[in-house]
Design brief:
Length: 264
């Protein structure tokens, strides 16, 4: 069966008067889900993860601001337009869990990260770069950086391919992530010590990053901020904002406004 939001709320109130708790079955029937707040969670990140708006989250949970606490249970409202077509019971619950599952492009990253020991709170920044050239991949850049005398080779922790020398949108994992080593991707020592470097292959002074690259970038950054065992939520920046007046990286056609609004 389907259930209207009005019916859902009436049943919930009759079943548990004065409690504020709503059974999971009723949430599922209304196309809703629950999220338990973890360390580093923000309303905006939770909203983006489930495909709802911050305003809808606030309204559904009767929040007056953006402050949430670890352990707090939030009801995730059904995405816009889905209430009338929400499947009943378990099928809705499965759909909600699937929506929150990390994208397949992160499978290798998640698997490799499980093998490393990350010092809690070490990674405070995520720094986005472009390679400045249209060819290359993690291995070729690693070899080039070794030839330049960089002790650990590849300066970045992750490289995202553009379809030429690695698949479009593929996230390649560098030795600095596997070894939890400082980056070598900026002049600023603090940002190398505490910043995760992500390089998108391409020259974005001449063109925009393609959709698959940006989808992979945002998926990776979302996961690093929301789900990776970092012991905190790193802020997101780009090379030119770190090494001011020294570089145009990641290029004039990089979508800076999208990055700002997504991770403000």
């Amino acid at each position: 069966m389907t259930i209207t939001r009005r019916t859902f709320l009436r049943i919930a109130c009759l079943a548990l008067p004065g409690s504020g708790f709503v059974p999971a079955a009723l949430l599922a029937a209304a196309g809703e889900a629950t999220h338990v707040v973890r360390k580093g969670d923000t309303l905006s990140a939770i909203a983006a993860r489930y495909g709802v708006t911050v305003a809808a989250l606030r309204q559904r949970n009767r929040l007056t601001g953006d402050v949430i606490k670890v352990g707090q249970k939030l009801v995730i409202p059904a995405a816009s337009g889905s209430r009338g077509a929400a499947a009943a019971g378990a099928s809705s619950a499965v759909a909600a869990r699937s929506a929150a599952r990390p994208p397949a492009v992160l499978d290798d990253v998640i698997a490799e990260t499980r093998k490393v020991r990350i010092r809690s709170g070490r990674w405070k920044y995520i720094v986005v770069h472009h390679s400045g050239i249209e060819r290359g991949n993690a291995l070729s850049y690693h070899r080039a950086h070794l030839r330049r005398g960089m002790e650990h080779g590849l300066a970045y922790h992750f490289v995202i391919g553009n379809g030429r020398d690695s698949p479009d949108g593929k996230i390649e994992i560098g030795p600095r992530w596997r070894g939890q080593l400082d980056g070598g991707h900026v002049r600023n020592r603090v940002y190398n010590q505490h910043g995760i470097g992500i390089c998108l292959v391409g020259n974005f002074q001449n063109r925009r990053p393609d959709k698959k690259q940006l989808d992979s970038l945002f998926a990776l950054v979302d996961w690093l901020r929301d789900d990776a065992p970092l012991g905190g939520t790193p802020s997101v920046t780009v090379h030119r904002w770190v090494d001011i007046n020294h570089t145009v990286c990641p290029g004039r056609y990089f979508p800076f406004s999208t990055l700002k609004s997504r991770y403000a």
